[in-house]
Design a protein that fits this description.
By secondary structure, this protein is of the alpha/beta class. It contains 15 helices and 15 strands. Keywords: Transferase.
Length: 378
């Protein structure tokens, strides 16, 4: 089977300043991952686009609890290319860590440049819900007078709308993040019209004003270079794929209960779960580890390279996406670009994707089971 690749494309952000400084804090934190999440992929795509458009006028910033570091286009571009190669090429390729990647000279030179730049010439860009705005002291150090233009790519407001699906501290952390970055000088680009609607509701409720609000929905384009797909162990029978972090809002529990019934009915239909184990998921893990009837039908994969995931998708009967809420749903776009059948939750973000797929309420287990069994024999 030939290698089937897909490229994630994010429309260019509308930024008009002469200089930009892009926050790579999340990308750096996830640098050792062999496979980027949807948010990671968007973050990387936006960073690469800024490098191409602003060239030497694109700077980079990394922050954590200890402080922040600013560095130049050459260092940032090199590091982003290494991340891209690791996620889309060789997952075992090394990614340089900050000490070896950032010389003290580069650090001092670029960092000394930032205070000399008038605020109207520079835009701080963050394309994840991480980075400098999560560290109030570092944010104040960079922008003590709140004069800096900023541009936020917003993926969702799930921590505020559905805190029950998050870690206990996430809502408070996200509120602090928004308080730090949102201002009349902050433009926001949303990943979907649904996310834009959620943001507008939040701004109205909190009586806040910001700059312009745009929508730039990512697109996925399939391509092939003729190389063979990697060999990945697969179930012997027909199987479906669920792709994403194992967490409550992804609704894995619905699928596992369906597969318990399929096992009891002696149906040889398998489920491949691809994704790391997340948070607040005790019931899901209990079923994965202790529910005996599904042990031979449910297969858990972690740490896969992008092309290994693609190989599993192409061999499957379809992608199952029963989430309770999403800001967008990158795996659905990627599967659709590869021609993989889909079964999706009937939620606003998925309706907006306008894909040729059945939309089912995330609590309608009987209909999910009916669609799965019908597609398995198709």
């Amino acid at each position: 089977m030939e290698e089937a690749l897909h490229s994630l494309i994010v429309p260019p952000l509308r930024i008009e300043t002469e200089l930009v400084i892009f926050d790579i804090s999340r990308l750096y934190r996830n640098r050792s991952a062999s496979f980027g999440t949807g948010v990671d992929r968007i973050d990387l795509a936006i960073g690469m686009d800024l490098v191409r458009r602003w060239q030497e006028n694109c700077f980079f910033i990394y922050s954590d609890e200890l402080g922040y570091r600013v560095f130049d286009n050459h260092a940032g571009r090199l590091w982003l290319e290494q991340i891209e190669d690791r996620w889309y090429g060789d997952s075992k390729s090394p990614v340089m860590t900050l000490p070896s990647w950032l010389s003290a000279r580069t650090h001092r030179t670029v960092r000394s440049l930032i205070p000399k730049v008038s605020p109207e010439r520079l835009t701080y860009v963050v394309a994840s819900h991480s980075g400098l705005p999560r560290h109030a002291k570092q944010w104040v150090r960079l922008d003590p007078k709140r004069e800096l233009r900023r541009h936020l790519y917003l993926h969702d407001l799930i921590p505020l709308q559905y805190p029950e699906y998050q870690r206990p501290h996430t809502q408070k952390q996200f509120l602090s993040y928004l308080a730090n970055i949102l201002s009349p000088l902050c433009d926001v680009t949303c990943n979907s019209f649904y996310t834009r609607s959620c943001l507008q509701d939040y701004l109205e409720h909190t009586n806040q004003s910001i700059g312009e609000i745009h929508v730039a929905m990512p697109a996925v384009v399939a391509r092939s270079n003729g190389s063979p797909l990697p060999s990945v162990p697969r179930p012997a029978g027909p199987y479906f794929v669920a792709l994403g972090t194992i967490e409550p809002r992804k609704n894995h529990l619905l699928l596992l209960n369906i597969w318990r019934e399929l096992a009891q009915e002696k149906k040889d239909i398998h489920l491949v779960i691809i994704g790391r184990r997340g948070w607040e998921n005790e019931n899901i893990i209990d079923m994965l580890e202790r529910c005996r009837p599904i042990q031979h039908l449910v297969h858990e994969y972690t740490g896969l390279q992008d092309m290994e995931v693609t190989a599993l998708l192409l061999g499957s009967k379809g992608l199952l996406f029963p989430s309770f809420v999403e800001g967008l749903g990158i795996p659905a776009l990627e599967a659709a670009a590869l021609g993989i059948p889909l079964i999706l939750s009937d939620i606003p973000a998925f309706r907006e994707l306008n894909l040729n797929a059945p939309l089912i309420h995330p609590l309608d287990g009987l209909e999910w089971k009916r669609q799965v069994t019908a597609l398995a024999v198709d």
